[in-house]
Write a structure and sequence with these properties.
4 copies of one chain form a homotetramer. By secondary structure, chain A is of the alpha/beta class. Chain A contains 10 helices and 15 strands. In chain A, 33% of the residues lie in helices and 29% in strands. Chains in contact: A-B, A-C, A-D, B-C, B-D, C-D.
Chain lengths: 352, 352, 352, 352
């Protein structure tokens, strides 16, 4: 395959359901890509997605895509249970691969995809779209540059009247977004240690429709996630407490998505105090300003397809690589086990 | 003691710290009461609370209060660890008793107070102030009259930069409010079954400063509580999902405190479907109006002192009696045990 | 031209600047239309709008469009000063015409367009997009069916950091949206009587950048509009007071765009009172529920292009026809005159 | 009268209606004052305000108050039409005077009060309570220290379901709050030049119930006020545009009352550009952070009573003196004249 710098890379999108059309639109809008195919078992659906004025080809056959030498990369937006087979076939055909979240429906399957890409020296990227939003990038920066101080707690809420699914619970449906964000903003070397999950299926759907996930983090920090298909209120917020400042992200706010509070509780370590002071209260309160940093307006998925192209061309791992996707699946599997055992704490592989 | 109908009852408030002044103000404003004493070990504090223009007497001595025949009832707003001794002394002196939440600092102590009041035939009331707000009353009504349908989930958030305490964790400090509300709105006969709690002390305060509490309810329903001393954002919300409608309560909203959503997910029970339909999706979505019911403006604590007076006069149990307080302490003790064991599920006494 | 029912109509979009791309996208998405051309003097801009995968043709020449028999209609999204010449040319070539707001840059020009379309029996439609939103449709319905009662006042705010323009003031830029909404929701036969405008140009742009417009309505009702290019806060709200209920529309609210308040002030007419009561206060207050009606999610511009097609096919006036556009220009011209004379009241032509 | 430093001053509150009780509470809470009387023609109302536990005396007779040598100052919270006679009587009795807004019901009456206080060398203070809030103080500071730059526009909204009054329109009822704030924050020497007002009485109350006020300020700046008794939505906001930053004040926001936007439009003056650049756009946009400054929590009325005491003791004019109240009445009178003449521009006395 010829991928010399400056030329657009050929790409095919597989899956024309909910997410595939967004990928197709962004690949077409990027000068780094030349979109060749939109592939779906239901070819009419693919045609409807493209509309009546498009020169992009459609096919129901994955082979058409994989046999096309002008296709350098495949973006997979099919149901999670098919990710492994499509991804392995694409890798075996020598294509770079972008996979929608979650990377696969089990840790074992996700690991096989990661390993195959490694063996073949091909780029494998997880489509963790939120990590490419200006908001999440800003959060990551404010943690990395010390503005927030040490991470103390994360409280995430993602609730909405959602499509209740038969084959996957609400954690697998919604939490990958938030877990991929946490994974992306956590400082180097800090990884969740263990998981506990509580869920309920009050409508009898056969799957947890409301769930809470607690992640133990080093240093007695705690990350907690609320995901819910049944709420008529749409909420997408993340509160990130740090030792210096606390950040609140409201992804739906029309006016102020990120607020950084210079307010909080400080505790003077007892060893720093002399004998008399140790008895006295060593707790103090900060009550400073709130700053809402300016954010760029940019579609995150545009950043995804550009990162994918750049990673392929420069033979480097993308910012959200296959291993990032694998770590999310690790947490989701552990959460399912915790749900089975009524909230029991389950340690993570990555923490072993 | 003479408590004939129509006459004001004499009352003393014990404790002039954070909550006592509110009790004192409301007893003075009610024609059902005649406030006789404000008692605090620090009498100067009591004097400062009353100001320079008051005819109410102060004393540092509980005996002064208990020996005064014009005092029919005592309202206790001292630290939780002292509730048992003050309450038992007041009951033994023949006084009716109102106790600030939590009723006591252990289940055993709370039970002793409840039993003593029973033995002596005196009124014991838990000051669960929130239960007397127009909002909570409306929520209770909408559950009781079937508007919301069966309870599916409760998600409660009470976070704020709070006074970090040395002797009690954030669950004992803040969750009693929300647990008393849950206790009050739950339909007759429905009681929480078990508790799991997750907490963190990222500032090294020696107590959990951030905590999450999950309560299992009958029918695979779930109640979940987030309490937090470290958040610079002040949030006080409760989302109550029902099989017919979902209610959102935002206690800090200046414009719309309660919203009732006629939106949700419906699942047709499989047994009601014929063979062909059972394979098809039996999930449907409602997308109706949102109604914000009109609420009265009334100070809740006024309702507390009036309920206390009326319960004494009519020799009936108050709406939030001692047993209601006891059930809250049961949950708090179980939550502490769950925290010790990293989130293990702990069954409740009331569910045995 | 052949426009038999069932066949898609051919359309060309003229102008590929800010609004043209939205029109182009919606014409392509509608099965009622076959988009033939995107025309712009800067043909490269037109090509960039369509992207690399489109079969739609571009041209810098209006003649190419007007000479094409497959083009039944032309949608004009060029600068307002060019509307008259493009629209008249299109009408003279036998094309139906859709014109972006404002219809023209003067009343005289707008009137010439309206008259020409009438003479030629062609459809002329004003692209008053907001009138095709579910929100405005609901507002119109609630006024028409009597839910709100008689209109008492309208308070509209549309402020945002906007593109300060050299050739047109903020009223001509932003107020057409709100005036077209008012025009659309007002009951049959109720028309504004007179206009007063106040403006300021504190940055020295040579045009009013902040302006307020007051419209006298029959029955001592008042409509008031605030438009502002300088506000960093983005606000788009309309408060519509009625004798029975009041409606608040917040177009940017992620959760609740329309709220209908059953709260207000009632005055018993004095003639309905007997002599004793006339001295007493005859004012009463309603304090009922707030209802947020369910709204469909639909792109308004899709409704515009469908209405345009249907009006052409059924030889009827579109809901927002040329005369509606003319009435908006009447108000804008009167507002400019009022600005010149420091807020003097200027009567409207329509009211004569 | 003996007012040596350190001693509390004696004060009487006249009027126990809506505002008087707030004054009474704050005088009692301040160590700078000794409250002697609450005076109301309806003495029972005064007694009810004080409650059953107060040592403060009541009287229906103003003479009782004025003849009492222990009374150094009188705070007037009676209806506006009585302000002149009560204030003059108090001044003539040698008492310092605090008057609720508006200072009087006409410019002539207000001027007589101001002049009498001057002649007698007594302190006359306007109770412009909002000027003593932490929010307004912060706004004044940010204008004074140049953070906001030059004032460009002010947009104020104060709407709420209000008590429709028979003898005064909504401008006289509500706008004094906002006008006193404007008066207080405007830089030294900058005064409104002229007024235009538009109003409506759609319920037939006999008074404008909805009104808009425009104030011309030097430098083509504009201040605009919306006051409304009929709105079921309660809104209290002020948007203050400056050449450097824009401030938004939402007095009802539970979380963020003041936001300072470093976003806006800049215009490079043409004379600073060379010939080529003058043709190019000289408009640029800033898109910086938003800062919500920390604000103290303090009851404004406490600040009023302390300022009153301090002004008396130090023989200086209070921050909101009688002349400040006089300027507000000047604007209100001009607004009434503008309403009579359908929005005609009326110049202010202060601007002559």
């Amino acid at each position: 395959m010829n991928t010399q710098n400056g030329d657009a890379l050929g790409v095919a999108v597989v899956g024309a359901g909910y997410w595939g059309p967004n990928l197709a639109r962004n690949f077409q809008a990027s000068s780094m890509w030349r979109m060749q195919w939109l592939c779906d078992l239901d070819e009419d659906r693919a045609k409807r997605v493209l509309g009546n004025y498009s020169t992009v080809r459609t096919t129901p056959s994955l082979d058409d895509v994989l046999n096309d030498d002008s296709v350098h990369a495949v973006a997979i937006a099919t149901p999670p249970s098919t990710h492994e087979s499509v991804a392995l076939a694409a890798l075996d055909a020598g294509k770079h691969v972008l996979v929608e979240k979650p990377l696969a429906d089990s840790y074992a399957a996700a690991e096989r995809i990661v390993n195959r890409a490694d063996e073949l020296g091909l780029t494998l990227m997880s489509d963790h779209t939120y990590c490419y939003t200006p908001s999440v990038q800003k959060i990551r920066d404010l943690l990395a540059d010390g503005t927030l101080g040490d991470l103390q707690y994360v409280d995430s809420i993602r609730i909405n009247l959602g499509l209740v699914q038969r084959d996957v619970n609400v954690l697998w449906d919604l939490a990958p977004h938030d877990l991929s964000i946490l994974e992306y903003i956590l400082p180097e070397g800090i990884r969740p240690l263990a998981v506990a999950a509580h869920g309920a299926d009050p409508i009898g759907a056969g799957q947890a429709c409301v769930a809470y996930l607690s992640l133990q983090l080093p240093g007695d920090a705690l990350a907690h996630f609320h995901v819910n298909w049944l709420s008529p209120m749409k909420v997408r917020t993340m509160l990130i407490g740090g030792s210096k400042r606390t950040l609140f992200w409201d992804d739906l706010s029309p006016l102020q998505r990120i607020s950084v509070y210079d307010r909080g509780v400080d505790l003077t370590p007892r060893e720093e105090l002399n004998l008399e002071d140790r008895r006295a209260a060593s707790i103090s309160y900060r009550s400073g300003d709130v700053v809402a940093p300016a954010l760029q307006e940019k579609e995150a998925l545009r950043g995804v397809v550009e990162e994918f192209a750049d990673a392929i061309r420069t033979h480097r791992a993308p910012r959200t690589d296959g291993r990032a996707g694998l770590r999310i699946v690790d947490i989701l599997e552990a959460a399912n086990r915790s749900l089975q055992f009524q909230g029991a704490v389950v340690p993570l592989r990555g923490a072993r």
